[in-house]
What we know:
Layout: H1 2-26, H2 37-43, H3 52-61, H4 67-77, H5 80-90, H6 98-103, H7 108-121, H8 135-138, H9 193-225
Amino acid sequence: xxxxxxxxxxxxxxxxxxxxxxxxxxxxxxxxxxxxxxxxxxxxxxxxxxxxxxxxxxxxxxxxxxxxxxxxxxxxxxxxxxxxxxxxxxxxxxxxxxxxxxxxxxxxxxxxxxxxxxxxxxxxxxxxxxxxxxxxxxxxxxxxxxxxxxxxxxxxxxxxxxxxxxxxxxxxxxxxxxxxxxxxxxxxxxxxxxxxxxxxxxxxxxxxxxxxxxxxxxxxxxxxxx
Length: 226
């Protein structure tokens, strides 16, 4: 009799710990959040906060970059500004590894949430007392955008592919004939740190304005076809 009671107690204890272990990972921490230990094990690092609004902010300026690439980079950086700077410096974001697909198998819902967040950000409400500044405002490029919203004549020519030319190499409307640049894709290494910083800033401005111009042209083409 005593042996049966002991076996029942052990069975109840085992069931309790199994249920607690099974529910602690998913119920308290939804997939993709920094507090989910399973996601950290799959990815190999502790993911940082990456909301649909953050993804939409990056996609608004760089619609050609895949959502998964943006999301994966934000999981590593946790900052829109850091991801944008990395994108501006390199011209691309690394594609996520296969482990990312196991952690986030469904990307359609992520795209929909990012698109919804992007649409919501374009409709200001009374509750939005301090809206997030755009990349044009953050990098103080308002003077380089004409009154009709398109990029002005100060935008260095760049077709959106290949290396990003420095602003000093030529001027012209984004989308015009691109300036010939080295085939290596590497920027010219300036002699001083001040010139290197200035060159990097000009390349950032060129990419932001060119991305904005492509987005405006895409929207105009969409309106014309509808």
